[in-house]
Amino acid sequence: MGEGGVILFGPVADPAGPWGLGIVCADDEAAVGALTEADPTVRSGLGFRYEILPMMTAVM
Q: What predicted TM-score, i.e. pTM, was given to this entire model?
């Protein structure tokens, strides 16, 4: 988060089981892929993963 690009990141209290949500600002999907591949949780080998989906629009 300290390097910029990450808008927010945190856990989601889903009744089916907790999961995390991250919203980032990036130039393209490759930049997001590089960010997620460098994540220590993913690199831990414990089965953590990301699903990368574009946000069509944001309402603030």
A: 0.72
- CA–CA separation, 26 and 23 (whole Å): 10
Q: What is the pLDDT of residues 8-46, one digit of tens each?
A: 989 999 999 999 999 999 889 899 999 889 989 999 999
C-alpha to C-alpha distance for 32 and 14, rounded to whole angstroms: 24
Tokens matching residue 43: 């690199």
Q: Which residues contact 1 (CB under 8 A, 6 or more apart)?
A: 9
C-alpha dist (Å) from residue 13 to 10, 33, 34: 10, 25, 27
Give the DSSP H or E segment for 11. Answer: strand 6-12
